[in-house]
Amino acid sequence: MLIATPRGFLTVLGRMWMTQSVARLTVAWCTLFVVGTDLFVVSPLLPLIAAQYNLPPAPTGLSVTAFATAYMICAPLFGRIADRLGRRLVLSCCLAGFVIANLATAVSPGLGWLLAARTVAGAMTAGVSPSIYALVSESAPPARRASWMGMAVSGLLCSLSFGAPLGAIIGASFGWERVFELLAGLSLSLLIANRRVWPTSATAMSAAAEASPPGGIGLAPRLVPTVVWATALYAMYVYLGAWLTRLGFSTKEIAQVIACYGIGAIVGTLAGGRVADRIGVKAATNASLIGMAGAFALLPLAVWSGPLLELGFGLTSAVAQVFFPAQQASLVNDFPARRATVLAWNNSSLFLGIALGSLIGGETIAAGSFASALLICGVIALAGWLIDRKIAQRPATR
Predict the structure, then answer these.
(1) CB under 8 Å, gap of 24 or more: what pairs does 174-179 form?
(2) Which residue from 386, 42, 86 is spatially nearest to 180, judged by alpha carbons?
(3) Is 248 left (phi over 0), alpha (psi -120 to 50) or beta?
(4) What architecture is domain 213-390?
(5) What pLDDT does residue 121 have?
(6) Residue 106 has what pLDDT?
(7) Neighbouring residues of 342: CB distance < 8 A, sequence distance ≥ 6
(8) Beta strands, E only, the chain
(9) pLDDT digits over 72-123, tens only?
């Protein structure tokens, strides 16, 4: 028999490990896809929700703000709890809360109940995402950690490109409530799947690590590049449709640009993990930030040329998205005992950067041109590269 020899035994073990690895990555990808869809699908559903409540879109849009704010505040808290009590336990509890929050969203009788339900959904997502990232990084081979992180993050990006549009179609056909009922059902299935694939052992913080200081002074500079990166990227992206409309592009042309941007983001995230594993995580984050600065400087040429418009934005997105999985892997390498905590803080930094980017983008669209807005984004990305190279790359010490 094959298993009778040492070589055969190792072969069987290797096949079992590969099957287990595929299962874990698949469940992680699906989980991030569902929680990402839950966030991004609200935007296309806003007109339907506002019409049912007899309200203008602006008040119902506060549900997105409530979700993001709750996530930003609760992510570090749940990350620390996950490191103390176990990532699998926190993941299971937060997924259960996520199911309840989506059911509450579907049956909300008014705006107040809707905002409360979306706040709880954001808080529960803050416990799900960092736990998934920490479990993936913990299960990954050290030489492929960034690749695994990139594959997991691609689930979140695919939810923007595919999950949200599909949810919009379902909402228009069967009612917006059905979307959140479907998300609740999928989340319940993923709760069962996550409990099956992740081990119950080696998920809580060791006693020695728990007794050690949190290392906030060493962590804070490491998070600044994430804030600056997200600020530069989303200062351009949040108002991209408005900018292109002002420049005279049709709705179809704008949709094509957004689609190419989303495809570029997925490609960049998947490729970014592999690049980081090959050249090193710090080299990958440096290359992404300096590449972003150059891409923003060249984008006006793509806008004016016409045929290169979709390609220019797709390449810019791909270059930019190399940063995130490499940054996550870098943080995990430097803070191995507190994976969930540092990844939760990194996610909060991402949301802070998105908020700052939207503010900067709003000011530039009110007072400047698209070329000047891209120049500002390029300068911010260049500043992020300098910070990542000179400050955040120093070894974390306590």
Answers:
(1) 175/48, 176/45, 176/48, 176/49, 176/52, 177/106, 177/107, 178/106, 179/41, 179/45
(2) 42
(3) left
(4) Up-down Bundle (1.20)
(5) 93
(6) 93
(7) 79, 219, 222, 331, 332, 335
(8) none
(9) 888 888 888 887 888 889 999 999 999 999 999 999 998 899 999 999 999 9
- On whether the 10-204 domain is CATH 3.40.50.300, my answer is no
Closest CA to 343 of 261, 223, 263, 204: 223
Contact 27, 190 (CB under 8 A): yes
Q: Which two tokens stand for residue 338?
A: 């507190």
CA pair distance 299, 305, nearest whole angstrom: 10
Q: What does DSSP assign to residue 1?
A: -
Residue 203 has pLDDT above 90, yes or no: no
Please determine, for residue 396, whether its predicted confidence score (pLDDT) is greater than 70. Answer: no
**The two structure tokens encoding residue 264:** 């570029």
Q: Which two tokens stand for residue 254?
A: 């704008």
User: CA–CA separation, 152 vs 113, rounded Å?
Assistant: 32
pLDDT score of 191: 94
Q: Give the closest residue to 297 by CA, choosing from 234, 245, 232.
A: 232
* Every domain of the chain and the residues it spans: 10-204, 213-390
| Token pair recorded at residue 302 | 């793509």
- Examine domains 10-204 and 213-390 and report if their fold is the same: yes
Q: Which two tokens stand for residue 245?
A: 């409309």
- The sign of the CA dihedral 303, 386, 289, 291 is positive
Separation CA 323–CA 57 (nearest Å): 34
> Do the beta carbons of residue 102 and residue 114 sit within 8 Å?
no
